[in-house]
Design brief:
single chain, alpha+beta, D-Maltodextrin-Binding Protein, domain 2, Alpha-Beta Plaits, 7-stranded mixed β-sheet, 5-stranded mixed β-sheet, 9 helices, binds adenosine-5'-triphosphate, binds zinc ion
């Protein structure tokens, strides 16, 4: 009898991702790159995990934080903008945090920015004092205004925020920007970043302690591997035979050097580096005898 109120023990992990939209395809591809597969039902709400007990729920991105908070899903792939907005809204209503970002995923980059009419000369946040600012991110904007010590009216709109100044419902807007083209088309310019965002894997503040715990840590391990692989660089260069040992030492964190056929004494070499190569590092390699250095990104495309 007393057990009837206990949380149900679940042995399958459930991940919410966007059904349609910017994050839908890359989220699915990322999870597939982690070795997950599903019984296909792209146009339905639920995908049953086949390779592992990890199911997908396809929803609107706005619903993802709430699904995690309610325990309907264990994880979600959502923009930091959406996650932080709903977290700030909970805090402003006196509710405790219920979800948190677990990993940044390297796609869906955009910024939540304050934009003003093109003719404004922007001198800083104090210029927003006494204005009306239209946004779909009222909690994040309210929090930012408080941090800046600026008093302004937050006008909440669910869409088409960029036309608010022309309609006379606000002087400024606070909206997501990636290229800025939408703003320009509406004679607005971005002036101030409120939040830099990208897609994140989000989870509950309280991690599961049943069979899902093992699945979660395995998924995170695989995810880290896949995300790391995306940063890999293919490094190619030429070097004389007698320089190769020193160069290999400088590249100790990379995969063993591969020798390709070269000309005469000069070898053609290549290796895979685990992360970006700094200019400093490239110069070190040149001093050690690397010639014609070339760095290629080996991105695993998730789009
Ligand atoms: P849904 O139907 O799921 O509610 P939506 O219209 O809210 O879709 P999208 O436009 O697909 O959502 O954007 C989803 C997420 O993509 C955003 O919350 C943000 O994190 C990210 N994103 C990246 N670039 C942009 C951009 N230029 N404009 C808007 N969102 C962007
Ligand atoms: Zn949405």
């Amino acid at each position: 009898m007393s057990a009837s109120k206990a949380a149900p023990v679940r042995d399958r992990l459930r991940i919410a991702i966007q059904k349609n939209g910017r994050l839908a395809e890359p989220a699915r591809n990322l999870l597939a790159a982690c070795g997950l597969s599903w019984r296909e039902s792209r146009d339905k709400l639920f995908c049953y995990g086949e390779s592992l007990p990890v199911d997908l729920l396809l929803v609107r991105d706005d619903d993802i934080p709430g699904l995690i908070a309610d325990g309907v899903c264990d994880l979600g792939i959502v923009g930091r903008n959406e996650l932080d907005e709903q977290d700030a809204a909970r805090r402003q209503r006196g509710l405790p945090s219920a979800f948190q970002p677990l990993r940044a995923l390297g796609f869906g980059q955009c910024s939540l920015m304050l934009a003003v009419p093109e003719e404004w000369e922007w001198q800083g946040p104090a210029q927003a004092e006494g204005t009306r600012i239209a946004t779909s991110y009222p909690a994040l904007l309210t929090q930012w205004l408080q941090q800046q010590g600026v008093q302004a009216e937050v006008v909440e709109l669910s869409g088409s925020v960029e036309i608010a100044p022309r309609l006379g419902t606000a002087e400024l807007i606070c909206d997501l920007v990636s290229s800025g083209a939408t703003l320009r088309a509406n004679q607005l310019k971005p002036v101030q970043t409120v939040l830099d965002s990208e897609a994140v894997l989000a989870g509950a503040v309280l991690a599961p302690d049943d069979a899902r715990a093992g699945l979660l840590s395995m998924l995170l391990r695989r995810l880290d591997g896949v995300v790391q692989q995306q940063d890999r660089k293919l490094l190619m260069f030429r070097a004389e035979e007698n320089r190769v040992a020193a160069l290999a030492q400088l590249l100790a964190d990379a995969e063993p050097l591969v020798r390709l056929p070269g000309e005469g004494d000069v070898l053609q070499l290549q290796t895979m580096c685990p992360g970006p190569l700094s200019w400093q590092r490239m110069e070190e390699l040149e001093r050690a005898g690397a010639q014609g250095l070339m760095v290629l990104s080996v991105e695993r495309s998730l789009a």
